Automatic annotation (TrEMBL):
It comes from Homoserinimonas aerilata. It is found in: Cytoplasm. SUPFAM superfamilies: P-loop containing nucleoside triphosphate hydrolases. This is Cytidylate kinase. Its main location: cytoplasm. Keywords: ATP-binding, Cytoplasm, Kinase, Nucleotide-binding, Transferase. It catalyses: dCMP + ATP = dCDP + ADP; CMP + ATP = CDP + ADP.
Amino acid sequence: AQGRTVVAIDGPAGSGKSSVSRAAARQLGFDYQDSGAAYRALAWFVLERGIDLDDEAAVVAALADFDYGIGIDPDAYFVRVGDVDVEAAIREPRISAVVSRIARMLPVRAYLVELFRHVISSSERPGIITEGRDITTVVSPDAPVRILLTASEEARMARRSAEISGQSAQEVAKHLSSRDAQDSRVVDFMNAADGVTTIDSTDLDFDQTIQAVVGLVRRTSG
Ligand code: CDP
Ligand code: CDP
């Protein structure tokens, strides 16, 4: 619809994209789209079907049956495949460990980019925040508000290990860096593209980071 504010946020794992975007959307009365959830849900679906994750043709063929559903109301967030609620399952380390292997397949990316654009254009709120790795550059390069949310590697690892139980801090750090390294080969989310505003959250607490995003959106969209 017209006059809506589209907000694009990218950044590496643990920079605060999901939690900050969702909270900012809530404050602004916007919708919130977690694009990483779609890559994770597809990885879950492919594993469920017993498809070889490196068999690109088989993964691409599976897209025809991939019935993905996401809740974009920040107060009613859900992720479903068919009628299965996969929100918890897609965060498991077994998914994080393999998701980059399907995210590097270009037909998979092309398919999901269209899906994200469709969700953005069907939102009925005054705005929508979408976060991921290639939202500012590929999905919504024309968005009026584009943000690269960063934080030092140390801060990102510390935040993630605080969330994950059952893995040592070293393990979490090792897995996160290797996922970022693999993902970086496909899209650059470590450097701000032209016109993209960097928000470095290393020395900001959670609330200050939300306010930095909300402030930028309000200043830009008036
Ligand atoms: O939240 P976290 O940073 O752990 O990752 P995520 O946003 O849930 O994304 C999971 C994975 O999906 C990433 O590691 C990328 O492989 C892929 N992804 C992507 O390729 N492009 C996006 N726009 C979003 C996620
Ligand atoms: O989505 P992404 O991987 O970028 O990060 P996230 O899962 O939203 O954030 C990782 C953790 O960092 C969450 O528990 C946030 O509450 C926390 N965080 C923080 O402690 N300080 C910030 N300034 C931003 C996020």
